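Bumping my old thread because nobody answered last time. Still need a sequence for this structure:
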């Protein structure tokens, strides 16, 4: 029965990706046609400007040969600040405004908005000070890791440390623990996820954690998913922020009620995961022409929790606002990038939650944290791709976290004694 269910799931995913490929081809054709129209418009404008310039040149030549009274009229023109030469090289107001709107206003506006949000991210980053103790800047718990998937929880946990958390815990199955421990001695690994009292064992640690990241490497074993469900419920009951990714989102699609209404949750679906969630919650297919609206509606339907839809541009919404993160990354899509995002988001969400809305100008702190994590992931991707190109992997991206973080955020965060 389970094999049949998994096969149906795989078939559905293949159909989705086939549909998405067709949609992207149509979108590419549309963009090409739009680009051709823009080029044609620019050519027409160039011809118009050349004609105006030629006319002004001829007029200036005729004025130079005209009687003195014509020169007097020119002087009169200057007193009212009429300059035909300047006008010749400045398109009419309507045309100039159209060009500005089409080619510069949108990008300038978005860059300004992004810089404003970057400033808010910097506001929530705690200063480094000698007065702090171990664990104060973040104790993050990663719930995931099974026999098949040991890399994902490691990527999430080590990313949290690299961003600035003090401690990273991984709650995984017994057969995944040894592998995860061998990746790094800096992780605290708990092989409890597949024991009968797994929920109680994880709950013991919840008071010591600032944030829980559930899903990386979780797998779809029914027993493990049932334990994950219980962990979500206990985490929610204690008011601890929780980031849900990967197979954790599969669980939410089956049981939306376990997270519905909990605004301390952040979901980080990719396109396929978002489509599955959207259809499960809203009982309608995703509108491919209205991505912003779909993210907004799904957040609202789930009780205004924060959603990060990963894609060509990351869309972030709490049901009231939609942020778009289009920070430059690369076209390389190796596995594990989402784990880097979820791990870094675990830290940033704790910092933002601790800082409060006064440090985010009244914005939902989780929106600011999500924007910071998306930007950081993209910056790591960009830097690693510049070095390794197609051979880049998530491990290469993780080595870039320090320099990427400094470049985006650290220059305004001062260390204090």
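Sorry it took so long. Here it is:
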């Amino acid at each position: 029965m389970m094999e049949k269910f998994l096969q149906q799931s795989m078939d559905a995913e293949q159909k989705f990706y086939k549909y998405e490929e067709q949609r992207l081809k149509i979108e590419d054709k549309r963009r090409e046609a739009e680009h051709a129209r823009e080029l044609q418009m620019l050519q027409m404008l160039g011809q118009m400007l050349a004609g105006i310039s030629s006319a002004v040149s001829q007029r200036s030549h005729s004025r130079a040969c005209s009687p003195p009274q014509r020169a007097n009229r020119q002087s009169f023109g200057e007193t009212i600040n009429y300059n035909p030469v300047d006008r010749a090289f400045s398109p009419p107001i309507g045309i100039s405004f159209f060009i500005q709107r089409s080619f510069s206003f949108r990008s300038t506006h978005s860059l300004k908005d992004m810089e404003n949000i970057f400033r808010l991210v910097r506001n929530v980053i705690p200063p480094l000070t000698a007065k702090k103790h171990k664990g104060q800047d973040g104790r993050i718990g990663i719930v995931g890791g099974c026999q098949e998937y040991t890399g994902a929880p490691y990527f999430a946990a080590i990313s949290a440390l690299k961003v600035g958390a003090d401690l990273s815990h991984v709650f995984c199955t017994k057969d995944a623990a040894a592998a995860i421990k061998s990746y790094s001695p800096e992780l605290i690994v708990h092989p409890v996820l597949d024991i009968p009292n797994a929920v109680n064992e994880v709950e013991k640690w919840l008071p010591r954690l600032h944030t829980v990241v559930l899903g990386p490497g979780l797998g779809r074993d029914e027993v493990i998913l049932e334990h994950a469900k219980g962990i979500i419920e206990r985490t929610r009951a204690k008011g601890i922020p929780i980031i849900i990714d990967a197979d954790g989102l599969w669980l939410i699609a089956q049981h939306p009620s376990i997270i519905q209404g909990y605004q301390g949750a952040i979901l980080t679906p990719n396109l396929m995961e978002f489509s599955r969630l959207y259809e499960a919650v809203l009982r309608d297919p995703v509108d491919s022409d209205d991505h912003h609206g779909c993210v907004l509606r799904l957040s609202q339907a789930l009780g205004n929790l924060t959603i990060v839809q990963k894609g060509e541009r990351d869309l972030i919404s709490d049901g009231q606002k939609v942020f778009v993160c289009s920070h430059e990354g690369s076209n390389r899509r190796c596995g594990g990038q989402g784990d880097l995002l979820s791990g870094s988001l675990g830290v940033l969400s704790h910092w933002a939650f601790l800082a409060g809305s006064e440090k985010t100008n009244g914005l939902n702190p989780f929106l600011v944290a999500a924007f910071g994590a998306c930007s950081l992931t993209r910056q790591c991707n960009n830097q690693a791709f510049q070095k390794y190109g197609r051979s880049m992997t998530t491990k290469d991206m993780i080595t870039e976290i320090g320099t990427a973080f400094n470049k985006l955020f650290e220059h305004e965060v001062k260390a204090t004694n």
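The first helix runs from residue 2 to 64. Let me know if any region looks off to you.
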